[in-house]
Design brief:
The structure holds two protein chains of two kinds. By secondary structure, chain A is an alpha/beta fold. In chain A, about 70% of the residues lie in helices and about 10% in strands. Helices cover about 65% and strands about 10% of the residues of chain B. Classes of the chains: A alpha/beta, B alpha/beta.
Amino acid sequence: MRTIAFIIRKEFIQLFRNKVMVRIIFVLPIIQLLVLANTATFEIKLIKLHIVDLDRSKTSRDLTGHFEGSPFYRIVEYSNSQALAEDDIMKGRVHQFISIPAGFEKDLNSTGQVKVRIATNAIDGAAAALMSAYTISIIQDFNVNLMVESTGISKQEPIRATWSFWYNPELNYANYMVPGILVLLVTIIGMFLSGMNLVKEKEIGTIEQINVTPIRKYQFIIGKLLPYWLVALFELAFGLLLAKLVFNIPILGSIWLIFLFAAVYLLVTLGLGLLVSTKTNTQQQAMFLSWFFLVIFILMSGLFTAVDSMPQWAKIINVANPIAYFVEVIRMIMLKGSGFMDVSRHFFILLMYAALALTVATWQYRKTT
Amino acid sequence: MRGFIIKEFYHIFRDVRTMIILFGMPVVQVLLFGFALTNEIKDANIAVLDHSKDIVTTEIISKIVASDYFKLTENLENEAQIEAEFRKGKIKQVIVFEDNFAQKLEKDRNASIHIIGDASDPNTASILANYTAAIIKDYQAGILITQAPFPMMITPEPAMLFNQELKGVFMFVPGIITILLMLVCAMMTSISIAREKELGTMEVLLVSPLKPVQIIVGKVTPYIVLSVINAFSILLLGYFVFGVPIRGSIGLLLFETILFIVMALSMGILISTIARNQQIALMISLAGLMLPTILLSGFIFPVENMPIVLQWLSNIMPSKWFIIIIRSIMLKGSEIIYIWKETMILLLMISIFISLSIRNFKVRLE
């Protein structure tokens, strides 16, 4: 026990002696929360539109008026040249253009049928699908108006669709992102700092000095990992405090449950960090290897894009992705107030994962080279 | 000078693990993200609470299920079940039909549907609600048309430019190239220079007859080579596996890529002049480069929807401009006249980073 305490003391002294590191520990969560919480949104607030009106009739102007009236649209250009519109799309000035053909009003009155082309820049496919759907629905509304005017049938829509959004009625994106960012935060501390710290001793050779002492393997590992475990938990507490004070994120579930999960989850990341450090000799390699897995884990975890939309095999890979479990669980606990029973499956999987990662890492760690 | 560059190449290439990762990473990432990373919504699990269970509600439900967006997994019996299902986290949306739906629709022309979304994921919730509302609207328009004696209809003809099938990869391949170039160039250079400082070998280099400029050029040359190889292997993968086209000129693409590589390298050098050891270089690169590259560049999330302060901030992110450039060339087939502004911004950034690093570079160690 005393030996472990000494190693832990040494680690803390080394950590806090490094002023830049201390600053990073405090500044990183602030920056991450402020920036990340506000960036992750797929919401489309404004569609920049170019209307090519080759008809210039009352009906075509009415249709244009429908778009002008919507807060979702900004009509950047109103022209009578298809080429100009295409050029605007190329330059990225507009997202979409609508072209109203010549003879639009005449055809509509005589045959009742007319076509309007909606061209959308679809490089961002998902956004394009939404923009296209908005525009189509505005044209549908316009159609209903036309029919009401021409035939006098009742305007009232027979089916009334209403909606409500539970757990986050104002659709506040920060509520969704902040819990995920807290996971990211403890992961970076757990995996990167601990792993690199050990490799650093290897690289500058001080590990030899420790290896020749009577310190046992498990003592050394506990002494190395425990400080980062504590720092990461502290980061979580700090992050939660910021989330509450700055973003006013609801924490419906038990805060102790969050910490319980974090404690187990950190054992997984620390174990993986340790494993990386046993497999590498320089900090550069260690960083590279961790970065490689971390980016895959993060992007597949559902932090930014929904896991449900991923193909089946990606969901299978996610079974082995610790970040995916914690991201899902922390959101459930904070936003929906899920209790231990709702997340018990995740808990036991993480627990097993932690045991596995730490065992393999300890087994791989060699005192002798 | 030549000898020094060769030394640097040895440093990188003798380390098999790093080499495997350096070349394996792009391949794995493009494959993984190309297939898995998607911001479109498919097969979202939904539940229905149908108090009416008549012919109209069945019709509407089957219309909703017929779209690719939804998968009906649960038929609920009462309101209390909604909360329980949401808490388990399996279901994204519940559609509630009131009782005697068909009858009310027929007689009063007024029947109501309530859509409840699990907005703990607001993105998905609002998109799903929009889709559902659109399907219902469509169904209504169908009813109206049968009633109107002289149907007047404007038929919208949607066209998706540059990406007809709305594939997510089109959006992500340029982003992955950017991220990898950023990693290989900026992070690796900054760490490799910081490493020489930390191990004390920088002193050896400084007292050698090499000029500081030569040291830096020597350090970055291997990474330029690596990056160009990586960038092109991603382009090839994107082209052959996912069908991401390269519609513009390859020469222009190569020129812009090299420009961005030089930018990232000068950024890496700047970081290394600030950082004293590898850990600090890593943390600066991670916090300062990786996250902004992923988030503020428009790689996944469109910049124009962000708060104004962040949009402004995104303008100083080189990756944002590069992603615009590379998307334009690859997908729109743009010529230089469409992207000269972005190119100038990159050039400006290069000159700022280089002059800052020259000012910061110390020939003597403290």
